[in-house]
Structure formats: C-alpha cells, structure tokens
Amino acid sequence: MNIKVISPGPLTTVQDLGRYGYQRYGVPVAGVCDAYSARLANIIAGNSEDAAVLECTMAGPTLQFEGEGLIAVCGADMAPALNGKLFANSEAVEVRSGDTLSFGGLRTGLRAYIAFFGGLSVPEVMGSRSTYLKTAMGGYKGRKLAAGDTLGTIWQPRPCPSAEGRRADVFFEPKEVYQIRVVMGPQDDMFTREGIDSFFYGTYVVGPAFDRMGMRLEGPEIKSAGGSDIISDGISMGAVQVSSGMPIIMLSDRQTTGGYAKIANVISVDLKILGQFKAGDKLRFCAVDMARAQDLLIRENRSLRGLKLWLDNRPGQER
C-alpha cells in the first residue's frame, strides 16, 4: 500500500522504538515519545511492536491511500476520520484505494500514532527507521513529512487481518494533576532535604520550553547542596535533570550525556504519560523503589503480549 501525504500536520515524522546501541558514539536513541501507544497501535494493526509508525504532534495529517490495508490510531485523540466518518482511537480500520484519512482536531493528549499493516517502508539507519531531526537522520529523508510525500508499507507474506474485533481500551485520560512515579537518583544526594521536599510536595507545570528532546517544568525551586553540575554521564529516557533549581524531564531526542545532576528518573510505565503532556499540564512526583518499577513494567509488557496473542488468534482474523 502507498500513502500519499495531502497535508502533513505541524510535525509528523516516521518513528519506531528507537536507535539503540550507539549512544557511546554520541548518537541519540530518538524513536517515539510514547512507546506504549505506538506498540498498541502496531498490535492492533497486526504488526510487530517495533514496526515504524507515524508520530503526529498537536494535529494529524491528511493521507490518501493507494491499495488496501489496515490502520490503527492510538495515543492522543485527534478525532480521526476515514472519508469524513469519525472512528475510535485504538480500533483497527480497513482502508482501500482512494480512501482519505483526516483528523478533526486535538481533544486529549498531544501525540497520536498511526500504524499501518506491514509497517512503514523507509531505509533503516543504524538498525532503526526513526527520524532524528537535528541531524536529518533516518525516517523519511531525515525530516518531517511534507505535502506531496509518498510512503510505502512493507510487503507481508501473511494475509492482512480483518479489522473485526481488533480494538483495545484507550489508556490516556485528562487529569487536573497527574501523578508521575519516579525512582530516586543517581545524584539525589546533591540536593538538600528542603529541595527534595519541594520536588515531592510541589506541583509543577509543563512550561512552553518543551520538544522531543525534553520538557522544562515550572514550580517550586529544588535547592542543591552546593551546585548541581556533575561530570557528564549518560542520560536515559525520563531522567529528571535539575538546572537553576528547575526540573527538566528528558525525552526521546535527548542528548546522550549531560552535566546536570539527576534527582530522579520517571519509571518506564509512566513514560507514556510524558509523551502526551503539553504546555500547561500539571504534575506531581511520587517515589517508588526499583522492585515496584520493575514489577509494573513486567505487568504492562505481559498485558500487551496477551492482547497481541488474543487478537492474532481470534477466529476469522484472515480476510
């Protein structure tokens, strides 16, 4: 199936789960900001979880299809419609030649993910199809999509499944204040007791300075015990750096190393919430230990594997 871009939306890029194994050479991981939604979209569309998808920010694109296939949209609710008829997030939809996918406007969240049966066919760069915009690496010509671009999907040796019954519950619900769980460290000892109390008891707001690299929060000052500069070390997804007393949460396009102390790291199962934050959203941090964070991740992965197994083995899945 070919996909023609009629209108690209403000920021639509090809992403997968990331470019791993090259941070020691200074190459960022990149990949989707909300891996859970991307994995879910791929599962519903009949793909492996790491197939390349479109990540849409703030507003979705308008796409026209040439050929038949199956799509799924997960993550932010942007009012997706096929040929002008609205359909639900997290539900498989069959498309045919001449059909047009469009979006009405942002209702909840920030980023939506469009998966296509077979996954998007763009060249792999260092084992990933993800776009890293700052160096024009990977994805579709290393850039965001533009009107007139044409993408293809990867041919599959198995039949495209039927859309019937291929759906899942939508996870993201708007809240007045979000609770974000973290594991403390590795440099939490560089902050005063008062500073750590501010971190946990204060309410922070996502400021206007955020992108795929990270988001700067505004709120109570986190006081250091004599400076927060360190010898640069590695940066992980969800690391909470503190610069000038304010926390910065690192996202997919984060640098590979950094010289600000990290007071904590957002646990893996809450990274999906970070990917849906937009300016003005409020959050509070709470601490869990490593064992709890790992248990929650195991449960989430088990749930996704179970969903995939159930969907792929339901009667009548081959059309």
Structural class: alpha+beta
Number of helices: 4
Largest sheet: 7 strands, antiparallel
Strand content: 25-35%
Poorly predicted runs are: none
Q: Provide mean pLDDT, rounded.
A: 95
Q: Please, how many domains?
A: 2
- The radius of gyration computed from the alpha-carbon positions, rounded to a whole number of angstroms, is 20 Å
Number of separate strands: 21
CA-to-CA gap between the ends? 16 Å
What portion of residues is helical? 10-25%
**Spatial strand sequence of the major β-sheet:** 7-6-9-4-1-12-11
Oligomer: single chain
List the helices and strands and how they pair.
Elements: E1 2-7, E2 11-15, H1 35-45, E3 53-57, E4 62-66, E5 69-77, E6 80-82, E7 85-86, E8 93-95, E9 100-103, E10 108-116, E11 120-121, E12 150-153, E13 178-184, H2 193-201, E14 204-210, E15 214-218, E16 229-234, E17 239-243, E18 246-250, E19 257-260, E20 262-266, H3 271-274, E21 282-287, H4 290-312
Parallel strand pairs: 13-21
Antiparallel strand pairs: 1-4, 1-12, 2-3, 3-10, 4-9, 5-8, 5-10, 6-7, 6-9, 11-12, 13-20, 14-15, 14-21, 15-18, 16-19, 17-18, 17-20
Helix pairs in contact: 1-4
What does the model show?
By secondary structure, the protein is α+β, with helices and mostly antiparallel strands. The protein has 2 domains: 2-170, no CATH class; 178-288, Cyclophilin (Beta Barrel), CATH 2.40.100.10. The chain has helices spanning 35-45, 193-201, 271-274, 290-312; strands at residues 2-7, 11-15, 53-57, 62-66, 69-77, 80-82, 85-86, 93-95, 100-103, 108-116, 120-121, 150-153, 178-184, 204-210, 214-218, 229-234, 239-243, 246-250, 257-260, 262-266, 282-287. Strands 7-6-9-4-1-12-11 form a 7-stranded antiparallel β-sheet, with no helix packed on it. Strands 13-20-17-18-15-14-21 form a 7-stranded mixed barrel. It has a 5-stranded antiparallel β-sheet with strand order 2-3-10-5-8. A hairpin with a 3-residue loop joins strand 14 (204-210) and strand 15 (214-218). The longest helix has 23 residues, at 290-312. The radius of gyration is 20 Å and the shape is elongated. It starts with a strand and ends in a 7-residue tail after the last helix.
